[in-house]
Amino acid sequence: MTYYAFMGALEQGFAYGFLVLGVYLTFRVLDFPDLTVDGSLPLGAAVSAVAITAGIDPYVSLLLAMIAGFIAGAVTGILNTRFGILHLLASILTMIALYSINLRVMGRPNMTLLGKSTVLDPLINSGIGVFNAAPFLFGLLSILGLLALLWLLRTAFGLTMQATGANPQMITSQGVNTSRVIILTVGLSNSFAALSGALLCQSQGAADVNMGVGTIVAGLASVIVGETLFGCRSIGRALLAALLGSVVYRLAIALALSFKLGQFSITPSDLNLLTALLVVAALTLPRLRRKVWRR
Question: Does residue 229 lie within any of the structural domains?
Answer without folding.
Answer: no
